[in-house]
Specification:
single chain, eight-stranded mixed β-sheet, five-stranded mixed β-sheet, 24 strands, elongated
Length: 482
C-alpha cells in the first residue's frame, strides 16, 4: 500500500492505526504536537531543539514537557528538517511509514498545503528506522531530560507576529474561454485518465467531473481554461442553432495519454448552470468580430460578453445537467397541477423525502411502469427515457413522423402529449419563400420555439424540456399576479 495524503495531512491521519512502537523525526514541535503525534510511553521523537529553534518559537518546550511526562523518549538534533514517522516492530510484519512535509504544529494542520506518503512497505520502514538511529546517534544529539526542558523554557520565545505568507502573482479572474464541439467518445479511457477522474471526483464531490478528448486543432487548451461545449453528430462541422450548451466547464488537468497522440482534458462543471443556444452565441459573437472560431479561444472582450450574458440568465433558463436530476425536476400534474412525486422502486437506504418521492414497491413490470404520480388526484404517468446517445438526424417532417410513429401533425402532437405528461402541445411546419421545409415550430401553451431542420431527436426532446420549464414558469408568474 502506498497512499498520498495531501492538503489537511494531520486531519487525514486521525483515522490511521499506528502499530507500536512508534518512532518519529519531526523537525519542529508546536504546542499541538501531543495531540497530533501518535506517541506514547516508550515511543521516540527526534526534533530540532536548538537554541535558534527555541528562540524563534518553532519548537515549544511546553509540548515537549507533555510528551516527556507521557514517557516519550525525546532527542534534539540541530538543523533537523525531516518529517518521518515509522511504526511497528522490526520483523512484526505490520509496519507503517509516513514521509512528508508537515511539522507537528497548528500552522501545518490548518494553514499550509502539506503532502505525505503513507506506506506499509516493510523495507521502507526498515530504512526509516536506520535513518532515525543515525540522527539520534549523532555526536551532537541531545537526549532530553527535565533539566534540558527547564533550560529550553528560559530560551523559548513565542512567535508574536504570524509569518506573512509569500505573495503570489495576481490570479486572473478567469482562464481563456473556448467554444468546442462535443461528440460521444467511443475510445476507452487510459489508466492515467481513469486515475485522474477518480481523484477529481473525490475532490469535487459537488460538481460534475468528466473527460473531454482534445482534437488536434485545440491542443493548446490548458488547466484554468473554460469550455463552452455543444453536442454535435459526426456529420456536423458546427453545432445546430437550437443546440444548447453544457454549463460552463473549467479544465483542472490535461492528461497526455502514453502511446497515443491525443490528450484528454479533465473538466469540472456545476450540476446546474446557465446555458445558451448556439444561435444566441453567434449573435453575441458577431461576424464583425470574426465569428465563432472553435480552434482558438475567444478574444478577451468577447469572452467577457459571453460570461456576462450567462450571468444575467434567470433560473428559469437553467438546465439541469444529469439524468438523475432531469427525472427529479418538479413537474405539475396535468389534471390538477399539484406537484408530481417521483416513484422509487426497490428498498431505499433511508426514508425518502415525501415532498419529492413515493415508494412504488419492489416489482418491475410487466409493461411500462409509471415514473410519476399525483398525491392529490391519483394521476399516474411515465416520463420518456433520457437517451443522450440517441443522435438520429431528422432531415424532414416525414423523418419526424417516422420516429414518432405519426402520419400527420395532429397524430404527432398526440404522440408528444403521451410522452410529455402535459397538455396542450402543438407542432407547426415552417417553410421558406420557395416552399422548402425550414423547421418545425414546437408550441407548449403560449410558449414556442422553432427547430431548424435538420435536428436530432435528443435536440427535439431537449427543446420540449426547455419549453416545459418556460411554460411552468409563466404559469407560476400568472398565478402570483392573480
Amino acid at each position: 500500500m502506498i497512499e498520498l495524503v495531501s492538503e489537511k495531512v494531520w486531519e487525514s491521519l486521525r483515522t490511521v492505526t499506528w502499530p507500536g512502537p512508534v518512532r518519529a523525526a519531526i523537525a519542529y514541535v508546536g504546542r499541538e504536537a501531543p495531540e497530533l503525534l501518535p506517541l506514547g510511553a516508550g515511543d521516540t521523537l527526534v526534533f530540532d531543539g536548538s537554541d535558534e529553534s527555541l528562540a524563534g518559537g518553532t519548537t515549544n518546550p511546553a509540548a515537549l514537557q507533555v510528551l516527556f511526562d507521557r514517557g516519550v523518549v525525546l532527542v534534539s538534533v540541530a538543523r533537523l528538517h525531516a518529517k518521518v514517522i515509522v511504526a511497528g516492530a522490526d520483523g512484526s510484519g505490520e509496519r507503517k511509514t509516513l514521509v512528508g512535509s508537515a511539522n507537528a504544529s497548528e500552522r501545518s494542520r490548518t494553514s499550509l498545503r502539506e503532502a505525505a506518503l503513507l506506506t506499509d512497505d516493510v523495507e521502507v520502514a526498515a530504512r526509516a528506522d536506520l535513518q532515525i538511529d543515525e540522527w539520534s546517534g549523532d555526536p551532537d544529539a541531545e537526549w532530553v531530560d527535565q533539566e534540558w526542558i527547564d533550560r529550553a523554557t528560559t530560551i523559548y520565545r513565542p512567535r508574536r507576529v504570524p509569518v506573512t505568507p509569500r505573495r503570489s502573482r495576481k490570479r486572473r479572474e478567469h482562464g481563456r474561454l473556448w467554444v468546442g464541439r462535443w461528440m460521444v467518445d467511443e475510445d476507452p479511457a487510459s489508466l492515467e485518465v481513469e486515475r485522474a477522474l477518480g481523484h477529481y471526483m473525490e475532490r469535487f464531490s459537488g460538481l460534475d467531473v468528466w473527460s473531454y478528448r482534445l482534437l488536434d486543432e485545440v491542443r493548446d487548451i490548458r488547466p484554468q481554461d473554460e469550455l463552452m461545449l455543444y453536442a454535435v453528430t459526426d456529420r456536423q462541422d458546427v453545432p445546430h442553432g437550437n443546440r444548447r450548451s453544457w454549463p460552463l466547464s473549467r479544465v483542472v488537468r490535461v492528461v497526455a495519454e502514453p502511446g497515443a497522440p491525443s490528450r484528454v482534458a479533465i473538466c469540472v462543471s456545476p450540476l446546474q448552470g446557465t446555458v445558451m443556444t448556439y444561435s444566441e452565441l453567434r449573435q453575441l459573437v458577431s461576424d464583425d468580430d470574426g465569428g465563432v472560431d472553435m480552434n482558438r479561444p475567444l478574444p478577451g472582450h468577447l469572452a467577457s460578453v459571453v460570461r456576462r450574458a450567462l450571468d444575467d440568465r434567470t433560473p428559469g433558463e437553467e438546465r439541469l445537467a444529469t439524468e438523475h436530476q432531469l427525472r427529479e425536476r418538479p413537474i405539475g400534474c396535468p389534471r390538477c397541477e399539484t406537484r408530481l412525486r417521483v416513484v422509487l422502486r426497490g428498498l431505499p437506504a433511508g426514508p425518502p423525502d415525501p415532498d419529492v418521492y413515493v415508494l412504488g414497491g419492489c416489482l418491475i413490470g410487466p409493461g411500462p411502469m409509471p415514473t410519476h404520480v399525483c398525491p392529490a388526484c391519483g394521476w399516474e404517468g411515465r416520463r420518456r427515457d433520457w437517451e443522450p446517445e440517441q443522435v438520429r438526424q431528422v432531415e424532414s417532417l416525414d423523418d419526424l413522423f417516422a420516429v414518432l410513429g405519426a402520419t400527420d401533425l395532429a397524430s404527432a402532437t398526440d404522440a408528444i402529449i403521451d410522452e410529455l405528461d402535459h397538455d396542450p402541445v402543438g407542432l407547426d411546419l415552417h417553410k421558406d419563400a420557395d416552399g422548402n421545409e425550414m423547421g418545425v415550430e414546437a408550441i407548449l401553451g403560449t410558449t414556442g420555439v422553432l427547430l431548424e431542420l435538420p435536428f436530432s431527436m435528443v435536440e427535439f426532446w431537449d427543446t420540449w424540456d426547455g419549453l416545459r420549464d418556460a411554460w411552468q414558469l409563466q404559469e407560476d408568474d400568472e398565478v402570483e399576479e392573480a
